[in-house]
Amino acid sequence: MTETAHGPGPSPEPGTDEPFDTGRALATLRSLCVPEMEGRAPGSAGHDLATRFLVSELTGAGLPPVLEHFAISGVLRLAAPPYCRVDGPGLVRDLVHRAEFAEHPRSAPMPQPVSAPVSEDARPGCWSVVRGSTQGTGFAELADSHAARGAVGILVAQHADASGYLTKRVQGPTPVRLPVVALLPELLDAVTGATVTAHVPLERVPAVGTNIVATLPGRAPDARPILLTAHYDGVGSDPGRHFPCAGDNASGTAVLCEAARVLGRAEPLDRPVTFALLDGEEMGTLGSGHHARQLRERQVRPDVLNIDMAGKFNGKVAVELGPADPVPGDLIAALDASGRRLGIPLHAAPVASDNRRYAAAGFPSAGVGLGAAHYHSPLDSPERIEPDALHKAGRLTLATVRHLAAHG
Question: Does the residue 355 lie in any domain?
Fold first, then answer.
């Protein structure tokens, strides 16, 4: 089959009424990535716009969804453009947000600018340079110690990712007692002895998450369902800088929407298929945790296939299996048979996403990931999505569903 940027070749997949339309999936992806969507962070107007758009997409495919709401205790967001300036013997300038400095998810609130000299030690009236891990209770205890000694804030190191940006983080544990600002490691060395003036107004805003769930009935309504999932939330845009969140995870969402359209128009399968567009993955897989609990309460045990990042094909598809699907379980057998038939290589690798919540709930589950050129970065844009990756993810998804329905 010839693959193009506008869709699959002219021949449909064996046993299907019509092939996966890559062009349509790309159109869905682009719609999710426009600036008005604001990076799809829960609690934002752009996120609500994305939810309405996806409801419309599934409804248009003949699958009007049900909405599941759940509380999110706090989404990290910047209330205003952050600012950080260095005045010292070797460096006098404003630093560039996201390229040279960034907010830290454990920072105490910083309602006003903080201006102070920088010291390697915890000194009264100074920023403290802290090297090493900022994880766990140890960092909180260290911050308490520095606060007790009169420090006004903490500067820590954060390495840039492959895109050259300091990765955006939208979740974190309870804040420590002092403001925390992350700098490139080389800048952390350069600012010692200088004066740093910073205003990084990081807020923790309560929000309501929304899962979008639609079910395609099967010919055997009492058969065990197949559950296809993908998270549609993103990390949200910065003030003045858009994060399209294309690879992570408008790509998986677009694959799921197009799979719903194809299966909704085909002959019914024996097993029901549920499509769940999940929310709150970037906050700690909250939407899948909520959905898995709902399924357990209803004593429903589906086979779960989660698609996270289908924007770049690196020669093989990563698959992570849950412990409830021991080899040779139905799910791995379906994925393996589908990959072999389509000529899409699979390999066992971590896929740290919503699939783990379903696995923890005891459901047979697999996380499938092809990758993305960039993620949690402004460069995660539709222009960097490989249509061939979407096409392969779509074909693999449809083939796996059909194999499960026929043999599960």
Answer: yes
